[in-house]
Amino acid sequence: MFINCPFDVSYQPIFRAIVFAIYASGFRPRSAMELDDGGQTRIEKLYGLVEECRFGIHDLSRTELDRVHGLPRFNMPLELGLFLGAKRFGGPRQGVKRLLILDVERYRYQKFVSDLAGMDIHAHNGDALLALRETRDWLANVSRRQLPSGDRVARLYQAFAGDLPTLAADLEFDPENTPYVDFERMVVGWLLAAEATV
Prior knowledge:
Layout: E1 2-4, H1 12-24, H2 42-52, E2 55-59, H3 75-89, H4 92-95, E3 98-103, E4 121-123, H5 128-143, H6 150-170, H7 180-197
Parallel strand pairs: 1-2, 2-3, 3-4
Helix pairs in contact: 1-5, 1-6, 1-7, 2-3, 5-6, 6-7
């Protein structure tokens, strides 16, 4: 499950909720943050992730101008384009790709990427729990698997978020600045423990 989203601090609650929803639904998130390899260019890393992932979540919510340069971020639309290009031109294996496109408002994309007209964009309104529910519901739809309900995944996430400071402290991490791979391990370990107590 390829995640294409902002990695800034203000987006972190949504990113973490999406990662949790993916794991809680029985899928594995993939992100450019998972591998720090100085011998690989970022675009090559993205090509590999796009090629390997059947599903993709693409959040286009960061379009505001950068305070320093006065320019918008184009990474998310670029990565969405790579995913759509792979789906369209990548042959039968890539043609089965499915994607969820998120934004803060459902039709806002028409103002900055009108070529997506006709595509079903989902809104999270900047709310982590809504992004979590959109992710879970979309996964249930495209996978046709029986997944835990959105209410259950949201409850689990809230419980995990409450436990996160202790989990991070036990590993001597700042809960707000835990490296991505360590955050993933905490999510997986917490979910396994939660399943064992049900």
